[in-house]
Amino acid sequence: MVDCCSVPGLLPFEQALENMLTAINPIDETEPVTLKNALGRVLAQDIKSPVNVPPNDNSAMDGYTFSQQSLAINTTLKLVGRSMAGSPFVGECKVGECVRIMTGAKVPADCDTVEMQENCQVEGENVTFLSPRKHADNVRSKGEDIGLGQAVFLTGRELTAIDIGVLASLGIDNVTVFRKLKVALISTGDELKKPGQALNDGDIYESNSQFLTAILTKLGADIIDFGIIEDVETSIFNAFKKADEVADVVISSGGVSVGDADYTKTVLESLGEIAFWKIAMKPGKPFAFGTLPNSYFFGLPGNPVSALVTAHQLALPALLKLQNVNRVQALTLNAKTTSTLKKSPGRMDFQRGIVSNDENGNLQVTSTGSQGSGILTSMAAANCYIVLAAEQGQVSEGEWVKVQMFDKYLQ
Ligand code: AMP
Ligand code: MG
Question: Is 68 in the same domain as 157?
Answer without folding.
Answer: no
